[in-house]
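Hi Q.,

Before the meeting this afternoon, I wanted you to have the nicotinamide-adenine-dinucleotide prediction in hand. No need to reply - just skim if you have a minute. The sequence and ligand are here:
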Amino acid sequence: MTIQRVAIIGLGLLGSSIARAVSQFIPEIATHGFDADAAVRERAEKLGLVGTMHETASGAVAEADLVILCVPVGAMASAAREIADALPDGAIVSDVGSSKQSVLDDLSAALPGRTIIPAHPVAGTEQSGPDAGFASLFGNRWCILTPPKDADEAAVAALSDFWTRLGARIEIMDPEHHDLVLAVTSHIPHLIAYTIVGTASDLEDVTRGEVIKYSAGGFRDFTRIAASDPTMWRDVFLHNKTAVLEMLGRFTEDLTALQRAIRSGDGETLHELFSRTRAIRRGIIEEGQDDAAPDFGRKDHGSAG
Ligand SMILES: NC(=O)c1ccc[n+]([C@@H]2O[C@H](COP(=O)([O-])OP(=O)(O)OC[C@H]3O[C@@H](n4cnc5c(N)ncnc54)[C@H](O)[C@@H]3O)[C@@H](O)[C@H]2O)c1
Ligand SMILES: O=C(O)C(=O)C[C@]1(C(=O)O)C=C[C@@H](O)C=C1
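Predicted structure with the ligand bound:
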């Protein structure tokens, strides 16, 4: 099947990046857009993000062969219900949500009998909104598809082709496995960043000014991550609860072991762990997954500005 018209629901960082990437890399595909926030619709119109802006979600999807829901994971169910009656037969419904099992469950409940293929482009920044997006966001990044077991193979192939043309590398995964992997590689790192920045700002003897003044190194990197969108991340933790709590249990045990090593002066344990983690970082760079790797001229969002 050939995708000719894509409807993008939600025109923030992810939705506006898809819109920009489609017009740059696959201009033959017509773009239709909608956002629940009137101010975002107005801004998207000014930026010329999509070929046609709509005042309703049902208007945006009415002629689409691919619909991509680019809303927080807690809003997937209501966004899906809004398009249910207007969705053309055979249209693929996908999304970009950061957790996948809850999205598959929500979309399947709201859109019974429809072609649902959830997806997660593992690419983003700490920014949000229609001005924050850019066409090269997905270049050389993974896009993980989590189709249901009985998914239409032609639809999976069409969606894979769409993301490949935006520059992404495709991986197919079971949604439960996705949620476990991303809990470790993305969700818990965000939780740690939110915690450490919150802890530092709560310390009575460290003024806010000092936190900013002395945050030149590692802490500065944490402040970038901790500046990420509160609504998006609240929803991720509430919708990937099981995997996050499981991984958080493992993490807490490891943290306690390190605490013990520091207290007892066990330098060998500390050195062994730090050597192992250094090798992992080097492996990531060799794999070409680091921000320094060439990737469609991606904007540098690697450090706090
Ligand atoms: N930010 C990232 O780094 C990143 C990366 C990959 C995936 N994601 C996922 O992408 C999705 C969107 O995130 P974002 O960073 O683009 O957020 P964003 O805040 O920049 O944009 C979300 C947009 O959705 C709109 N919206 C909310 N509910 C809606 C509804 N029912 N109908 C229509 N529009 C609605 C909001 O008005 C907003 O403009 C989330 O599910 C997030 O988990 C984010
Ligand atoms: O680089 C960042 O700022 C991100 O947080 C991007 C990031 C990630 O954790 O890697 C955040 C959430 C997404 O679902 C995918 C990508």
